[in-house]
Amino acid sequence: MSFFQKINNSEIFFRFLDIFFGMILLLIFSPLIILIAFCIKITDFKSPVFVENHFRVGKDEKLFLIYKFRTMIPDAHELLFHNPEFAKLKEKYDRNGAKLRIKDDVRITSVGKIIRRFDFDELPQLFNVLKGDMSLVGSRAFFKEEIDLYSKEYPDFGRKIKKTLKIKPGITGLWQISGRNLLSVTQRVDCDYEYFKKRSIIFYILILLKTPLIVLTRYGAYE
Fold first, then answer.
1. Per-residue pLDDT for the chain (223 aa), expressed as one digit of tens each?
2. Among 20, 50, 88, 141, which residue's CB has the most CB atoms within a 10 Å radius?
3. Domain for residue 106, yes or no?
4. What is the pTM of this model?
5. Is-contact 222 103, C-beta < 8 A?
6. Is 213 domain-assigned?
7. Within 13 Å and on the Cβ side, how many CA atoms surround 126?
8. For the chain, how many structural domains are there in total?
9. The domain containing residue 84 runs over which residues?
10. SS3 of 99, please?
C-alpha cells in the first residue's frame, strides 16, 4: 500500500482534518453563534437555546447528544409523534414521500425561520465535531426512531444504513450537496452509502468546498 493510500484510509488523518477545519470554522462563526443564542433567548427567555435531549445515532450505532439551535417550539419532535394535537401535521409528515422535513411546519418559531434560512441551526454541531461525535463530512445523523421505522418500510434502507454507521455522521455530506430536502429518506441513505463506499480525503474536501454554495443558493431547502 502506497503512502497516499495509507493516508487516504487513515481515520487519524480524517480526525486531523475535522479538528483543523473545525477550529477554523468555529473561530469564524463564533460571533454569529453568540448572536443567534442571544436572539433565541431574548425572544423566549423561559425556553432553552439548544434543542434538549436531542439524541442521534452515531458511529457503531451509539447514541450521542447532538448540539443544535432550537428553531422549533420545545419538544417538537416528541410532540409530532406522540401528541394528538399534532395529528394533522403527523399525517402530512407521513404523506411527505419519506422526506425528512415538512414544508410550512407550524412548529417552527419566527426566529427559527430566519436561522434555518441559512442552516445556522447546525452551527453548534461544530462542538460535536471537536468532541469526536461527528465529522464535518459524513452520513446524516438519524433519529433512532427514523432508522427503526424506515428499516421496516424499506429493507434496502436498513441494509445500507448498517454500513454507513461504521463511520461518523457529518454536518454536511453527499446527501446535502445532492438535493437535501428534495431527496426522500431512501435517496438520502443512497447518497450516504455512496460516500461510505468512495470515502477519501479528496471526496471529503470536495464535499466540504461545495457545501457553502449549496447553502447560499438554498438548493433543496424549504425555508
1. 565 566 666 789 999 999 999 999 999 999 999 999 999 999 888 888 998 888 999 999 999 999 999 988 777 767 777 666 666 666 666 655 544 566 667 778 889 888 988 889 999 999 999 999 999 999 999 999 889 988 998 889 999 999 999 999 999 999 999 988 788 888 999 999 999 999 999 999 999 999 999 888 877 665 5
2. 141
3. yes
4. 0.84
5. yes
6. yes
7. 18
8. 1
9. 3-217
10. coil
